[in-house]
Amino acid sequence: MIFKAVQGAKPYPDHAFSTRDWANVPPRSVRLDELITTKRELALDKLLDEDSTFYGDLFPHAVQWDGELYLEDGLHRAVRAALQQRHTLHVRVLDLDELRPKR
Description:
The protein has 103 residues and is α/β, with parallel strands linked by helices.
C-alpha cells in the first residue's frame, strides 16, 4: 500500500492558506504510508511531466487534522516518489490540530 488511505474530499475546514503562507511552512520528512490523499484521480500526463513543479511549490502540501495527515497538494509528486521506490517525501505540513482552539 502506497498511502494510508484514498479519499475524494477534504475532511478538514478551509484553512485559507495562500501560496505565500505555505512558503513559510518548513518542509519535513513524511512517510508515504502516513498520508491520506484528498484526490482520487491522477492525470497521467502530469505524472510523467518532469517540469510539473516549474511554476509551483517544490514541496507537496499536507494538512494535519484529528491526528491524520491529508495530502492536499502534490499527489503526482508522491506517486512519482513511490514509483522510484522511495518511502518518504519532504512535505510542508500545516498542523490544524495545533491551530484550532482547545476544547
